[in-house]
Request: fold
Amino acid sequence: MSDHDAVGEAVARTVRSLRALHGWSLDDLAGRSGVSKGVLVGLEQGRGNPNLTTLIRISEALGVPLTRLVQVEEDPPVRVFPPHRHAVLWRGADGGTGTLLAGSDPRPALELWRWRLRPGENRESEAHAPGTKEALYVLEGELTLAVDGRSDRIAAGGAAVFAGDRPHGYANDAANDSSGDVVFVLAVLDP
Reply:
């Protein structure tokens, strides 16, 4: 396969994927990009030879850099994050941790976290980008989850899904070490 053919396939694959991710029809993308539906059909089928202006219009409409459209190599179907790649990005006053285990990019971005809150510790978070969703599962202890002024207690084995685009926080309301730590995993989807 020639370099030209490989780039054409990459553009077709990427435009189809990103358009579907946005939930747009071909007509929607045509209206947003100023590129005719016929050109888009040919492009998504790997036919034609779009010029730079056309590619720039499409990348701008999709909200990605031009390099993303012509990236020949796809992200691998599996990315493994061994323990030495995990990053502790939050440390509580009493030794709690917020560890980023894995993440994806570009958008939509997905992050996987492991949190340990010592008794009395909490982590407050500002609202994330509009449309952000979070899901958590409590492995140990009882977590107090506060979202936009509402507070819920989630015991070990319980789970929650909530709007991450509102102010929120996680807390271990236990009064002392005898009650133990709260341990939970958290997934964040940022559109």
About this structure: The chain has a mean pLDDT of 88. Strands lie at 87-91, 97-103, 109-117, 122-125, 133-140, 142-147, 150-155, 159-163, 168-171, 182-190. Residues 83-190 form a domain with the Jelly Rolls fold (CATH 2.60.120.10).
